[in-house]
Amino acid sequence: MPSSPAPSTALSALFFRLLLLVVVSPALSKTVTYNWNITWVRANPDGLFERDVIGVNGAWPCPQIEVEKGDRVVVNMYNGLGNQPTSLHFHGLFQNGTNVMDGPTAVTQCPVPPGMSLTYNFTIDQPGTYWYHSHHKGQYPDGLRGPLLVHDSASPIKDMYSEELVLTLSDWYHQQVPTLLKKFISYTNPTGAEPVPQAALFNDSQNTTLAVQPGKTYLVRIINMAAFASQYVWFEDHSMKVVEVDGVYTEPYETNMIYLTTAQRYSVLITMKNETTSNYAFMGSMDEELFDTVPSSLNPNVTGWLVYDASAPKPAAKDVSEFAPLDDFLLTPIDGEKLFPEADHVVTLDVMMDNLGDGANYAFLNDITYVRPKVPTLYTTLSTGEAATNPAIYGVNTHAIILNHLEVVEIVLNNQDKGKHPFHLHGHNFQVVHRSAVDAGLYDASDPSNPTMPAVPMRRDVIQAPPNGNVVVRFRADNPGIWLYHCHLEWHLASGLAAIMVEAPLQLQANTTIPDDHKAACDAQGMPYAGNAAGNTVDLLDLQGANVSPPPLPAGFTARGIVALVFSCISAFLGTAVVVWYGMREVPKDTAAAAAAAARRE
Ligand SMILES: *[C@@H]1O[C@H](CO)[C@@H](O)[C@H](O)[C@H]1NC(C)=O
Ligand SMILES: *[C@@H]1O[C@H](CO)[C@@H](O)[C@H](O)[C@H]1NC(C)=O
Ligand SMILES: *[C@@H]1O[C@H](CO)[C@@H](O)[C@H](O)[C@H]1NC(C)=O
Ligand SMILES: *[C@@H]1O[C@H](CO)[C@@H](O)[C@H](O)[C@H]1NC(C)=O
Ligand SMILES: *[C@@H]1O[C@H](CO)[C@@H](O)[C@H](O)[C@H]1NC(C)=O
Ligand SMILES: *[C@@H]1O[C@H](CO)[C@@H](O)[C@H](O)[C@H]1NC(C)=O
Ligand SMILES: *[C@@H]1O[C@H](CO)[C@@H](O)[C@H](O)[C@H]1NC(C)=O
Ligand SMILES: *[C@@H]1O[C@H](CO)[C@@H](O)[C@H](O)[C@H]1NC(C)=O
Ligand SMILES: [Cu+2]
To answer: Which of 92, 331, 452, 594 could bridge across to 564 with cysteines, CB 3.0–4.6 Å?
Structure first.
C-alpha cells in the first residue's frame, strides 16, 4: 500500500475527536475489586439491644458496592465467621453468562465454609438500584446485606436531579436467625406464625438526618433490605416522583407515599423547598398486617429528617390517617417494552401453607415444599448431558421447571393463603401483566371481566401477590441459567416457598464451567458437584437418598387434629404465654377451642 500523504488538519481533528470519544466513552469499563472479610461485629442499631451482627472488614453496616454500567465487579470473599457458612447474592442482577456467580447455596454453589474464600466475578450491564445479601439459610437479616448502585452516563433521568442519596429500610430482630428459624419451623409453632421484628431501621440506624439544600432536586434511592416487613415510606410536606423501580427507569410518577416489600427498590425525585426555616420528618412504617400478633411494645415506625437548618428543631412526625401508597401497576417503563404476546409456556403455581408429619408448618407451591438438594442444581445441569432437560433428575423437592431457550414464559401465581407474599425471580425482571384484588381467588385467563393487559407493562423483579388473590407475570427465557423463584420473606423461603427455573439447560452447559474455588468449597464439606439431586452420577433417574420433605400427616390425622394435639401439649406444659407468642390469632376458632378443651382435660 502506498504511504498516504500527511493527514489534513480536518482529518487530524476528526482523529482527535474520535480519540476523545474513546477516552470518555462509557464503553471503557473498569474492574472494581472488593476484598471482604466477613466477620461478626457488635452493633446496636435500634438503641434497644446490642448484639452480634455479620459485618465486612470489621465494620457494620456493610459497605456499598458502587459501579458504572459495564464495569466488572470482583468480590474476593473470605468467610471469617468461624461458626457459619455463607454466600453472596447480587439481587436483581441478571448474571447473563455468569449464572455460576448468582450465589444462592444449593442452587448455584455450595455454601462457603468458615476459613475459606470464594471470588465473585461478573460484569454489570444494567443501570439502577440493587442490593447484595447472603443467600444461605435465611442468614442476611443478621446483617450481611448492603446497597449495590449502578450509575449510568446515558441515563434518561440524569438531567432531572443534581444529587443522589441512598436510604435503606429494614426490620430488625434482637435474636439471631438460626435461633428464630428453629422456633419458626417447629411442632411448637404449628400455625407457622413468623417471628415479629423488634424495630424498623433507616440506613441500619434510626433518627437519621439528611442535610439538604433549598431548591435542589435529589434522587433518593430507596432499598428495602428487610427479612420480613414491608414498609410504607413518606416525606412530610414533600412529594416524590418515582423514576425507577427495581432497576427499570419509569416515566416520572408523582405520589406522596410508596410501599416497599422486602427486596423492592424505588428511586424517587424530591425537590426541596426554597425556605430554609424549618426541618421536615420523613417516615417509614412497617406493614403490621404481615404480623400474626403485634406486641404492644413494638414501634413499627422509624423517623428521619430532611435538615434545612441544623440549628432549627426537628419536629416530631405527624400521624397519617391512612396508608394510601402508589399502586406500582400504574408505572410505565421509559424504554417502552411492549407486552409480550401470548405466552409459549404457562407455569401455574398455587401458594399454600400446611403442616407435615413432623407437626411443623411448611409453605408449598403446587403441593411441593422446596428442600435443598444434595447437589446444587446448577451442578446437576452441568454434569448430566442431555438428561438435564428431564425435571425428574433434579428431585421432587427442588421443584424444577424446565424452560426452553427464548420462549415467552408466563407465571400465574395463585396465592391461596391469607398472607401477602412478595415473589422474586433471579436472572430476570418480568412484566407484571395482571394483578387481582385481595380475595379474588384463582386467575382465570378466559374470564371476560379481566381488565385489558397494559400495552407497556410495569417491570420489576419482586412483586407482591395479594392475599387470596393472584398475580401474573411474563418474561422471555433469554438468559440460560438455574434461577430461583421464591417468596422473599426469609421465613417463607426457609419453610419452602420456592421453585427452580431450569432455563435453557443445554445452552447453559455449552458455556459454563465451575471455578476451582467453587469446587473447593464443596470438597471441603464432602458435598458432591456432579450427578442428580441425590448425587447419583450413574443412574440419573435413581433419586434414592435425595433430600425430601417430612412425610405428610399420618393417615387419619387431619392438619387440624395435629394442630389441636400440639396446642394441647403446649398449653399443658408451658402455659398460655407460649400460645399467645406464637400467634393464637392464626388458629381457626374450633381448633383453638378443641385445644383449650384438651388442655383442660389434662
Ligand atoms: C478476618 O478477620 C478476622 C477477625 O478480625 C481475622 O482473625 C482474620 O485473620 C481475617 N482474615 C483475613 C483473611 O483477612
Ligand atoms: C431515636 O429517637 C427515639 C425518640 O427520641 C428514641 O426513642 C430512639 O431510641 C432513637 N433511636 C436510636 C437508635 O437512637
Ligand atoms: C474475572 O473474570 C475475567 C473473565 O473471565 C477474567 O479475565 C479475570 O481474570 C477474572 N478475575 C479474577 C480476579 O478472577
Ligand atoms: C445512608 O447511608 C448512605 C451511605 O452511607 C449515605 O450516603 C446516605 O446519606 C444515608 N442516608 C440517610 C438518610 O442518612
Ligand atoms: C423556588 O424558587 C425557584 C426560583 O425562584 C422557583 O423557580 C421555584 O418554583 C421555587 N420552588 C418552590 C417549591 O416554590
Ligand atoms: C406509627 O405511625 C402511624 C402512621 O402515622 C401511626 O398511626 C401510629 O400511631 C404510629 N405508631 C407509633 C407507635 O408511634
Ligand atoms: C442475555 O444475553 C443475551 C445475549 O447477549 C441477550 O440476547 C439476552 O437478552 C440477555 N438476557 C438478559 C435477561 O439480559
Ligand atoms: C452459549 O452457548 C450457546 C449454545 O451453544 C451459544 O449459542 C451462545 O453463543 C453461547 N454464548 C456465549 C456468551 O458464549
Ligand atoms: Cu411469603
So the answer is: 594
